[in-house]
Design brief:
about 70 residues; 3 helices; globular
């Protein structure tokens, strides 16, 4: 299994900040499915915690570098 070196915000699958794209790349999931799952879970939890989690991840997760896309 080709796993990325570390969790990062995606450059290739970016819609807003690349957070969901980065999570999808890290786990090998579809970026679209990851976004849909996040929206569904956020709506089920009254949206506010989901938005807050996204903003925190945006601040905490580093941007992808070329080295981020090299497999280990």
């Amino acid at each position: 299994m080709n796993r990325l070196v570390k969790l990062h915000r995606s450059r290739q699958h970016r819609m807003i900040a690349g957070v969901m794209g980065g999570i999808a790349e890290y786990f090998g999931w579809s970026p679209t499915a990851t976004r849909i799952l996040f929206v569904v879970i956020s709506c089920a939890s009254a949206a506010v915690p989901g938005i807050l989690i996204y903003l925190i991840l945006w601040l905490v997760m580093p941007n992808a570098t070329p080295a981020s896309y090299q497999s280990s």
